[in-house]
Amino acid sequence: MATSTRPNARRGLDQSRADEYRDWLRQMLLIRRFEEKAGEAYSLGKVGGFCHLYIGQEAVAVGSLAAVGKDDYVVCSYREHGHALVRGISARTVMAELFGKAAGCSGGKGGSMHLFDVSLGFLGGHAIVGAHIPLATGMAFAAKYRDTRQVAVCYFGEAAVNNGAFHEALNMAALWKLPVIYICENNRYGMGTALERASAIYDISERACSYDMANEVVDGQDVLIMHAAMERAVQRARADRHPTLLEVRTYRFMGHSMSDPIHGHYRTKEEVEEQRKRDPIALWSQRLIAEGLMDEAGVKALDKEVLREVNDAYQFAEEAPDPEPEALWADVYAPGEG
Amino acid sequence: MPTLTYRDALNQALREEMQRDPEVFLMGEEVGVYQGAYKVSRGLLEEFGPMRVVDTPITELGFAGVGVGAAMVGLRPVIEFMTWNFALLAIDQLVNSAAKMRYMSGGQVGVPAVFRGPGGAALQLGAQHSQAFESYYAHIPGLMVVAPATPADAKGLLKSAIRDDNPIVFIEGEMLYNLKGEVPEGEHLVPLGSADVKRAGDHVTIVCHSKTVAVALKAAEQLAAEGTEADVVDLRTIRPLDAGTILESVTRTHRCVVAEEGWPFAGVGAQVVDTIQREAFDALDAPILRVTGADVPMPYNKHLERAAKVDPARVIAAVKQVMYLD
Fold this sequence. Notes:
The complex is a heterodimer of chains A (338) and B (326).
Chain A: H1 18-43, H2 58-65, E1 73-76, H3 81-87, H4 91-98, E2 116-117, E3 122-125, H5 132-145, E4 152-157, H6 164-175, E5 180-186, E6 189-190, E7 193-194, H7 195-198, E8 214-219, H8 223-240, E9 244-249, H9 269-276, H10 280-290, H11 296-319
Parallel strand pairs in A: 1-3, 1-4, 4-5, 5-9, 8-9
Antiparallel strand pairs in A: 2-3, 6-7
Chain B: E1 3-5, H1 6-20, E2 24-28, H2 44-48, E3 53-55, H3 60-72, E4 76-80, H4 91-98, H5 101-104, E5 114-119, H6 134-138, E6 144-146, H7 151-163, E7 168-173, E8 180-182, E9 196-199, E10 204-208, H8 211-225, E11 230-234, E12 237-239, H9 243-253, E13 256-259, H10 268-279, E14 289-291, H11 302-308, H12 312-322
Parallel strand pairs in B: 2-3, 2-4, 4-5, 5-7, 6-7, 10-11, 10-13, 13-14
Antiparallel strand pairs in B: 1-8, 6-12, 9-11
Helix pairs in contact in B: 1-7, 3-4, 8-12, 9-10
């Protein structure tokens, strides 16, 4: 049942959904400003370890998660600040986690790569490439086992599709008809290795054909296209318990992590500049303006609003206390054991 | 009390726990239609159906991860590895996912899963099928490691492991499946983290677990005939280690031999020795000796294989050395 469709998103926007569409813009702006602030905090030494920014890919998390229900499960890789924010973890507690503070969403013990909020079905933040793909598959197994209508959503980069965990999980998901949506955020580079230098085939969506799995290639810079593709995938999972692989073509505007320059050894300045012309936030705000759902002033006001939210989060994180020394020993084992 | 094999004791534990809790399921290679590579899951598919007794492709990393994911949302999977040798393909899911989830989520997400299957050498299975991996997993904070030696402990420990909220590495003895012993019926729970004195004696302590318990008991029997009474301490759980029982014995006997099937370097015995020297240094009348598998990959040839394994003669020789009898 392999399919490959590109929906026609050039029809006029549904005016009755204007509030939702404006909120998508707000969410994308929130991610952008949050990530800029996180980068700044990293440069000041307030955020440690590794820090992978999501700038350029905002439409993927926003468009896809808008089609996911609150009881569903969301599992991410280590580039997950944006997904966490969209899922509803507050900017304050995400920033506090980056700062390693007790008020962080993982108590300051996870860090940038391990954001969790079980009350929102946000189950990590995983930092071994591809290893979380079987985890999401297991959550989909649990949904089927309990005969709920939940689905599991799993985000990973295009570099993960070359490892065994990806193939082992997709095979089982298709074999057992599990309600899971695999979202491959193809941002063209696994760290510094271009897709065509790592994968024998260019179209990652074709890998789903090995497992007779539904698949689509999606323009990840267009939030509306992303959302439409995700709605189809969620429907397929929830109603029919069929998994889907979405290959979402996107681009990261920043380096792989904070230690990687934006361009240099593996991609040129010209390439990054060319890709920046398809900035998902610019594309969506222009669309909203063109269709009369917002005006320039409205966009600016929204940007100001999220900037305030991010600055508040930064201040909150800075002032929040570190974990108590005893936290070192807590939560290794279940309470009362070990 | 009924007499059962170690295999059937495990089967009984699985059956009782699956009857008790509908969120417990069994997943692994050949656990269903084939009835288990070692027949531990015999009859379970017929009783519980294919949603709860799940045959998987040969994909250890994949189904171990599926088990961890299911446990993260509250199911209680029992993941069977056909042997722990094959589980090396899945070790990332045990070490990086299962063991760390609770900690790195700030206590929000536990992994109440049991990973079980046979470990250690059988007979002439060669280098890749003859390995004891207890110390690999015992090294990892967040995991518990259990290795029962008798049918009664196999049942009681597996039932406790399934009810526990931590990820548990449950290593069965491949050569123990046919071992018979009395097994209490019904609600028989052996607490995790508690060692058991399998034979009492005051002259020397022999610390052992899994397959080496039978070896130690055989050695103790021969030693008794020569007038040496050994206290045989079966660890049962490697992590958390029951230091209390070990120290109680050693402070009484003043001498200790640690026997294990695995390799010597950074083995389980090294941890036991460290515990004793820190906590009971003044009680010792002799250096502690370790008897381990030979520090080589397991050879196929049966004479060489025998030479590589722990046997009663080597345990007896070590005991005589710590007692200055030779």
